[in-house]
Amino acid sequence: MASYTTDIPQAPQSLGETQQPILNNFNAIYDGFRKNHEPLAGTNAGKHTIVQMTDQADPGGTANMLTFYNKIISTVPQLFMESQGNRVYQISKFDDANFSHFGQFIALNAPTIFGGWTFLPGGLILQYGQITGVTANVVFTIPYTTVYAFFCSNSLSGSVSTTGFTVNSTAGQPYFIVIGV
């Protein structure tokens, strides 16, 4: 990448004297723009090919704008959005250890025969699945700090904690949904 020289040209300098530094500056600008963008001469000039963000703190809202940014949460980069009213929304919940269960309905270990999890805005985690048999002790893929809602179809009795639940149902293979943080 070409280097960029600030303050070129100075008032007493002629364009002939500063032609090479000015050319280098234009090349540096072009090289910087080219990273993650379509070429300037193409039909999609200026459009992003990908977006990469560096880690930062909540930037503070700007009138009539939304701000997207990257912030580290427990050593993992997460995507956030901030409104013009300084309201912060967490948009992502990356969890590499449990990635294979994200947004899926896949085979799991008994007693949960199928299940998965997904992230809801505001930091909520939704886990779901189907259980074998009428009595089961299920361990959540991702433990919760707080469970806000729990539903199990055909359930007669049971209990739920931040790490799992037990259930006695009226019919085999009931489905469950849990929401929490």
Characterise the protein shown here.
- With 181 residues, the chain is mainly beta.
- The protein has 3 domains: 1-52, no CATH class; 53-92, no CATH class; 96-180, Immunoglobulin-like, CATH 2.60.40.
- It is 11% helix and 36% strand.
- A 5-stranded antiparallel β-sheet has the order 4-5-6-11-8, with no helix packed on it. A 3-stranded antiparallel β-sheet has the order 1-2-3, with no helix packed on it. A 3-stranded antiparallel β-sheet has the order 7-10-9, with no helix packed on it.
- Strand 5 (112-120) and strand 6 form a beta hairpin.
- The longest helix has 20 residues, at 15-34.
Write the SSE topology.
Elements: H1 15-34, E1 67-73, E2 76-82, E3 88-90, E4 106-107, E5 112-120, E6 124-131, E7 135-139, E8 147-152, E9 155-160, E10 164-169, E11 175-180
Antiparallel strand pairs: 1-2, 2-3, 4-5, 5-6, 6-11, 7-10, 8-11, 9-10
